[in-house]
Specification:
The protein is of the alpha+beta class. The chain has one domain. It has nine helices and six strands; from the N terminus they run ααβαββααβαααββα. It has helices at 5-8, 23-26, 49-57, 85-98, 103-114, 130-153, 156-161, 167-182, 215-230, and strands at residues 32-38, 60-71, 77-78, 116-124, 187-188, 190-197. A four-stranded mixed β-sheet has the order 1-2-6-4, sandwiched between helices. Strands 3-5 form a two-stranded antiparallel sheet. The longest helix is centred in the middle third of the chain and has 24 residues, at 130-153. The protein is globular and about 55 Å long.
Length: 231
Amino acid sequence: MFPSEETSRAEDVNFSELNIHTNEQFIPLEKYDLIHIRYLSAAIGPEQWDGAFDNCMSILKPGGIFMWEELLLEKMSINDPTKWTNVLAVFKLNWSILRRNDVDPKLSSLFSTKLEEMTKEEFTTQSLPEKGQRMQAANMSMATKELVGRAVEHGEAVVKHLGIESAEQLHGMLKLAQNDFKEGCVLHMPVNRWTGVKPLVIATGRNTGDGSGDLENVQAGWAEAFKKWLC
């Protein structure tokens, strides 16, 4: 469940613009107890997962919790696929782009080899109230626009590789899909969530000194709190 609008407003929140592939941007950042990554597979190619993952790990405290969520577009469903054919066409295109990026095997491997207490679970936005479902649909509409924009930037050859005749046709598909969302289309999107804990002891066996006797209980409490908030 999503928190109420009153409780979800946060004060003293700072935002930074980062390129997940640029290590230099991560170096000056402070270390965090929790890192939560969501829906970045559109920006990470098959050969880029390791570097992006390591950049995120570099700003996580030892003993901190790392969560990463990605959509399972191949399992997506629509409230009325016979009516919202424009959305269906665009997200089939989305899936054809993202499936080449090795999301599941790469993240599962990285979490299991670089983190402790790794878990992987699947949940769906179908369990959210209608308002939450529509909000997720709006999020995915923006993500689709980003994917289309990136494809167009690489020229007509890339556009045609996706099975589309021209950039104009691609933009037209997106516009029709956005109209479907405005008229009531709702997506039900399964999501994979990977969770892990950054080790307290580095490879040499030396303790980092950032742990405490109550760390496991604190981590369990954090994990449960964030899962309840996110679902």
